[in-house]
Amino acid sequence: MRIDLSGKIAIVTGATGELGRVMARSLAQCGADVAVHYMQNAQKAKELVEELQATGVRSVAVQADVTNQDSISQMAKTVQAELGDPDIVIANAVIQIHPWSSVLEEDPSDYESQFQSCVMQSVYLAKSFIPGMVRKGGGRYIAINTECAMEAAANSSAYVAGKRGLDGIVRTLAREVGKHQITVNQIAPGWTVSEQYYDAPEDHDAGYRATVPLARRGTDQEIANVVAFMASDLASFITGAYIPVCGGRIMPAI
């Protein structure tokens, strides 16, 4: 048994980011053609497309503002013209907030940006890509959430609010499109070891690791592995799920 995405078409939003590019590579390694979405980093998108094409799959770079419906609609037209209707949509892009603040001190614009990039991105992606999945008789919609949504730690309210809103949208979407054999799921990483942390001091995350039952941080590849599985036919009867990939740091209850 192996993950085989041959003949499938995927789009990854935020594909030039730390986790996004590993997800794109993993989907391509499983045989999927991949549309690489970017917001500003056209050069990195070009390099990633060339890397994916070298593995033998088709790939194209597409630019869009994920908080704008017209921009996503135009991106969808480009993907459809270049590759076809996607079977797999990975909603990974998000607007980062730095630094995080308390509810009393957080700028209201941070809540608005999180709502737009978490909730409205998925609304716009669904409107643009779900009809193609319906025509094809099935598909996979995977939203990247976070362990923070369940943890609700102090000073994370804007980020948590956006990701909690995302949870509501995609769970509802799962109920609405299931009859078309389209699954809709969420993957919730913890604080992940990605490229920016490869050379970090060994003890820089000791406090966090102490809160993880597996006593370590997950890697970008481990997140991408779950994405690939959920995108495959092996996960054909899983929908509406929120799947933590955080070493047990959060454990949804039944």
Automatic annotation (TrEMBL):
<dbReference type="InterPro" id="IPR036291">
    <property type="entry name" value="NAD(P)-bd_dom_sf"/>
</dbReference>
<comment type="similarity">
    <text>Belongs to the short-chain dehydrogenases/reductases (SDR) family.</text>
</comment>
<dbReference type="GO" id="GO:0016491">
    <property type="term" value="F:oxidoreductase activity"/>
</dbReference>
<protein>
    <submittedName>
        <fullName>SDR family NAD(P)-dependent oxidoreductase</fullName>
        <ecNumber>1.1.1.-</ecNumber>
    </submittedName>
</protein>
<dbReference type="InterPro" id="IPR002347">
    <property type="entry name" value="SDR_fam"/>
</dbReference>
<dbReference type="Pfam" id="PF13561">
    <property type="entry name" value="adh_short_C2"/>
</dbReference>
<keyword id="KW-0560">Oxidoreductase</keyword>
